[in-house]
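Protocol step 4 of 5: obtain the predicted structure for the target chain.
Materials: sequence only (see below). No template structures provided, no constraints applied. The aim of this step is simply to have a reference model before the mutagenesis design in step 5. Sequence pasted as it appears in the construct record:
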Amino acid sequence: MAANLEYFQDDRYIEATQIMDRCIFETAAKICWIAQDQTEGRLKRYLEGSLRPDREHRAIIQANI
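Step 4 output (structure tokens):
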């Protein structure tokens, strides 16, 4: 966040700053969404979705080995 503010102040990397702002906002929204659930359902769903590309990539690497 601090690096993002530094870039914004110097009017450098405007597009990158906007992308980082959006990522920060989306992450905060996801955390709020997960925190509202009293069960572990949302957290489990979030983690499964987040780790899916890593698991698929690992499977490809294992198959190539």
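Step 4 remarks: The chain has a mean pLDDT of 85. The helical segments are 2-9, 14-35, 41-64.
Proceed to step 5.
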